[in-house]
From TrEMBL:
It comes from Astyanax mexicanus (Blind cave fish). Its cofactor is Mg(2+); Ca(2+). Belongs to the GDA1/CD39 NTPase family. This is Ectonucleoside triphosphate diphosphohydrolase 1. Homodimer; disulfide-linked.
Length: 497
């Protein structure tokens, strides 16, 4: 028993060995933490890109989207990187010279090529979707619409991207993808809670889409989605010819009909244009659309003269809605089934442009009607003086467009003063425009899974924190163990001293 402490005290390697083991232990722990951190660190942000061309009736816009390469299936990850407005008219406006349709896209496509990194070009998908302008052209002249699509296809194929096709999308798709876009951007798809309805007003058609708990009486208007593990029963309808440019033609045509055409100068008085507004127009510009049907018209010009009367304008616009003949329990207009509107709505495109210009976005329905009445009665000269920088065509039409919007929402879709505040007039959500294009791309690239993707139980930050805490705990335990392990030796040494 006496020999033992003497032997330990004499061992010259005892202390260095403990130091060596401790150092190794510390290095081990530090390496473990370092490897954990490095291994799980997000890779240097790498983005992927996608391009969607919205070939609308009034103009084409090119949207470029980007998303972090490793997070394709996470909601809210795809963002709009850039939007480019193609100069000139929409592609359906090139029906008589189709080659110019493709050429018109070049400036925006060149821009896309310059802002997307070169090494991503071959894998960047390009989609073109045409909406109501091309639907109408197809109805009027199928061969011309085919040529226009061929022309845009030829040009898009000259770019180094992955061309995925140019086609006319259906009104149902336009409504559904607009709904997906706003709910994806609003991050409402992951939570089973409320979604946003989508209201889109274009130049040639308008769409209404919302989740409805009521019985869907018309299969054409009903879509079922399963997204991120949730089921959605969505009502949608697209009214062709009810975009604001076509309704202007319809309502003008209604006012022209009673006019006696034998007189020298035909004057059409219009309560939806400001007093003092006088413009020479061609009958053809009103009657050239398949939306304005069954009428012969004189090959003459007419004088379009404003009288600025909100009440009469509302009455004139009201005539474009047909309220008779609903074969369902409930309809919007023109015999189309529509359940009662439910929940919150995002109203975008021309709903926003017009209501925002008129400063009506935050008013109640009654206040909006009153303000609009005053605006319509304002003389055209004063309107022009007050807005010298606004395009004159838009400026002349805001009274009509505002009246159409209020009439469509109240008399058409049956919103009331009680649920008026449920409509939010929006242009963007975050940095991305509200519209059908993002939803279209998410769908075609399978970026919205039916089931919720498996997510790690801990976020990255939480994972690293836990790793560090555990490492520190093990280190402390190790040191404690060393101390306890050394204690008998120390007391034995003391005994010798
Ligand atoms: O959906 P479709 O019917 O194909 O048409 P579009 O896609 O071309 O239609 P937009 O939403 O781009 O525009 C809708 C209408 O609003 C008009 N518009 C665009 N910007 C506007 C602004 O700032 N003020 C007023 N009107 C505007 C435009 O000329 C159209 O008549
Ligand atoms: Ca549109």
């Amino acid at each position: 028993m006496d020999d033992q402490p003497e032997m330990k005290a004499k061992n010259p390697w005892h202390r260095p060995r403990i130091i060596f083991i401790t150092v190794l232990f510390v290095i081990g722990i530090v390496s473990m933490v370092a490897i954990g951190v490095v291994q799980n660190k997000p890779l240097h942000q790498k983005y992927k890109y996608g391009i969607v061309l919205d070939a609308g009736s009034s103009h084409t816009s090119v949207y470029i989207y980007q998303w972090p390469a490793e997070k394709e299936n996470n909601t809210g990850m795809v963002q709009q990187m850039d939007a480019c407005n193609v100069p000139g008219v929409g592609i359906s406006g090139y029906s008589t010279e189709p080659n110019r349709a493709g050429d018109s896209l070049k400036s925006c496509m060149d821009k896309a090529r310059s802002i997307i990194p070169n090494h991503r070009h071959p894998e960047t998908p390009v989609y073109l979707g045409a909406t109501a302008g091309m639907r109408l052209l197809e109805m009027k002249n199928a061969a011309a619409s085919e040529k226009v699509l061929e022309s845009v296809e030829r040009v898009l194929q000259t770019y180094p991207f992955s061309y995925q096709g140019a086609r006319i999308i259906s009104g149902q798709e336009e409504g559904a993808f607009g709904w997906i876009t706003v709910n994806y951007l609003n991050e409402s798809l992951r939570q089973a809670s409320g979604t946003l309805g989508a209201l889109d007003l274009g130049g040639a058609s308008t769409q209404i889409t919302f989740v409805s708990g009521q019985k869907q009486e018309s299969p054409d208007n009903s879509i079922d989605f399963r997204l991120y593990g949730h089921d959605y029963h969505v009502y949608t309808h697209s009214f062709l010819c009810y975009g604001k440019d076509q309704v202007l033609k319809l309502s003008l045509a209604n006012e022209i009909r009673p006019v006696h055409t034998k007189t020298e100068t035909i004057v059409v008085e219009d309560p939806c244009f400001h007093p003092g507004y006088r413009m020479n127009k061609n009958f053809q510009s009103v009657f050239n659309s398949p939306c304005v049907t069954g009428l012969s018209y004189p090959e003459k010009n007419f004088v379009h003269m404003g009288s600025g009367n909100g009440t009469k304008c509302h009455a004139a616009v009201r005539k474009v809605f047909n309220d008779s003949g609903c074969s369902y329990s409930i309809c919007s207009f023109n015999g189309i089934f529509q359940p009662r509107v439910e929940g919150q709505f995002g109203a975008f495109s021309a709903f926003f442009f017009v209501m925002d210009f008129l400063n009506l976005t935050t008013l109640s329905l009654d206040e909006a009607k009153e303000e609009l009445g005053k605006y319509c009665a304002t003389p055209w000269e004063i309107i022009k003086q007050n807005h010298p920088n606004v395009k004159e065509k838009y400026l002349a039409e805001y009274c009509f467009s505002g009246t159409y919007i209020l009439t469509l929402l109240e008399d058409g879709y049956n919103f009331t003063s009680h649920n008026w505040q449920d409509i939010k007039f929006i242009k963007k959500i975050g940095n991305s425009d509200a519209g059908w294009t993002l939803g279209y791309m998410l769908n075609l690239t399978n970026m919205i899974p039916a089931e919720s993707p498996d997510t790690p139980p801990l976020p990255y930050g939480g994972y690293v924190t836990l790793m560090v805490l555990f490492a520190v705990m093990i280190l402390l335990l190790g040191l404690l163990a060393c101390k306890v392990f050394r204690r008998p030796t120390g007391s034995a040494q003391k005994e010798i001293i």
